[in-house]
Amino acid sequence: MSSPYFTPTRVFSSATALRVVFLLYGLFQDAYSLFKYTDIDYMVFTDAARYVSQGLSPYERETYRYTPLLAWILIPTSWPGTFWFSFGKVLFAISDVVAGWFIFIILQAPEGGAMTTERALKYASIWLLNPMVATISTRGSSEGLLAVMVVALLWAVARRRLVLAGMLLGLSVHLKIYPFIYGASIVWSLESMPDSTPAHKRSPAPTESTKQLFSITTILKFFNRSRTILITSSLITFITLNLLMYAIYSTPFLQHTFLYHLTRIDHRHNFSPYNTLLHLSSAAPDRISSLKLESLAFIPQIAISAVLIPITLSKKNLAGTMLAQTFAFVAFNKVCTSQYFLWYLIFLPFYLPYSSFLSSPRLGILALTLWVGTQALWLHQAYQLEFLGLSTFVPGLFVSGLLFFAVNVWILGIIVEDIGKRDSPNRDSTESARKIH
After folding, report:
1. Which of 150, 163, 176, 431 has the greatest number of beta carbons closer than 10 A?
2. Burial class of residue 271 (count of CB atoms within 10 Å of its CB; 0-12, 13-18, 19+)
3. pLDDT tens-digit readout, 88-110
4. How many CB atoms lie within 10 A of CB 197?
């Protein structure tokens, strides 16, 4: 039975209204409460934008660890008036809604399941009407800007607009490093159509004398036209932006935008199991082993999210693979904050329709309860530490961080298993071609 609520006008109007209400409430809380609604990161963004508007480097603002392009985009926040100061929040909130529109479009396309308008809107509402998503963007986090680029990237790949897809990938990685993991899954998914020629009509297997030539041909065949276009356009975009920023801001650009993240030791509001170790490293760096674990933490993270998952799953379902990659990247990251959850929430509408969490409601409820419950346990320990001054590092924060990590690994296993059961699009196309032949 159809619902009169799930029409594009009503859903997108509600999503916009939700963000307007949060923006207005934020202005009220900032004006009258000691606990500010505006995220501290937004203050960093706007300070950097003010420096840029004065012809200075955004890195004059301590703790600005982003590309100067973001500060350039937010220059209007340096103009006088409350409205202009909120320009970035409005931009991020609009980006949320635009990302939801792309989700809606993809879900209706054959690549996204060819859903009806009502069903597509229901799943898109997981993002559009999610209070957590709206809160984070209206507090001034730039994650919404990345979300719209990532889902637009998925749309461009699905429509085979590969030059645009490459440009979006290069721009996304320049703005925030993590989208580079999608390059592997997209490239791996863009394979040439398998040979549908009947076995008795195919060329005989290569002899020993032709094996070397055959191996070279196989390597060259890997770089088919689609892969070459995507790789070339993404590299040109990424390199061009980096050269431009380096020419203007020199070494500080490389240090703060990229190199800093290899050794960062942020420990506040960090759900990662590395949290306690990072705190010790920041408090007494000379007393910690010369082997900096925070510099090595990316090895299992990258191995799983950028190598193993793409190779295993990307030919099954690209959107699902990108979800699994992002979930693994966040779960194994040495810094894990609530804002990072948006990185994989954007992919949930594409995965949930065939997920075990919906086909088995008890499993879904259990997973959600454990995911929220272990977060709440960690936040309780963090509150006692930061607001009450009680030392809860061990066992409190450490154990709760490990529990949250264990729950995430368990959920990731279910996601990977669900995607692995999907039929390869190329396999379906091959079978259809054989029937037609």
Report:
1. 150
2. buried
3. 999 999 999 999 999 999 999 98
4. 12
Type of residue at 221: K
Burial call 345-361: b when 16+ CB within 10 Å, e when fewer: bbbbbbbbbebebeeee
Which tens digit of pLDDT belongs to each residue from 370-409? 999 999 998 888 878 777 777 777 787 888 889 999 999 9
C-alpha torsion 42→44→46→52, nearest 10: -150
The CA distance from 196 to 180, in Å, is: 33
Determine the residue type at 241: L
The 3-state DSSP class for residue 117 equals: helix
Strand (E) or helix (H) holding 47: helix 40-53
Structure tokens at 309: 């998952």
Contacts for 154 with CB less than 8 Å, ≥ 6 apart: 102, 106, 318, 319, 322, 350
Say how many C-beta atoms besides its own lie within 10 A of residue 405's C-beta.
18
pTM here is: 0.87
DSSP 396: I
Under 8 Å CB-to-CB from 132, ≥6 apart: which residues? Answer: 338, 341, 342, 345
